[in-house]
Each structure stands twice: as C-alpha cells, then as structure tokens.
Fold:
Amino acid sequence: MKATLPKAKPRRRLITTTRPRVKKEALPKVLTRLGVITTVVIVFLLFLQAIIGKFSLTSLYKKNSFQKKAQVLQEENVFLKGQLSELLSPLMIEKMALSGNMERPTKVYYLRVGKQ
Structure:
C-alpha cells in the first residue's frame, strides 16, 4: 500500500478589481482646504481690485480731460480778450471810422474807454 499524502487545500485569494492603495504622504485636509480658500480669496480680491482700478482710472481720465478742456478754454478766453481789446482800442476805431465803415467816435466813447 502506498501512503497517500493529504490533498493541499488551495489558498483563498481575495478577488479585487482595484489595485492595492499606496498611502501617499499628503497634507492634512485642513491645510488643503485652507489653501483652496486662500486662493479663492486672492483671486476674488484681484478681480475686485481690477474693477475698482478700472473705475478709478476712468474717473481720473475724465478729471484730466475736464482740466485740459478748462485750460484750453482759459487760453482761448485770454486770446479772444486780447483781440477784442485790440479791436476796441481807440486807434482801431478811428481807423475804422476813417475807412468809412463807421461813424466817427464821440467824446463819450473816449470817456467810457478811459474809465475802463
């Protein structure tokens, strides 16, 4: 008689569909959440700053353009006043009167010009 060895039972294998997970060294969840929150806040502040900057730049542009317009108008005003005073000078009026386009100025006019 032959001696028979007992049959070896097959080892049970766990049938899994996923690979065994390798534990990664990662930051704690609190730190990752804080990082996400800070990035969102920074992006929001940048957009807010861009919007406010745009409005302030447009207001500065408007202010500068108004100042330039006012300066140009003042310069034109000074120029026109100079021309008007030159035209209304007694010599110019006499020239116009002598040319026949106007009556000869009276003494009342000279008194009025002298008071000014």
The mean pLDDT is 77.
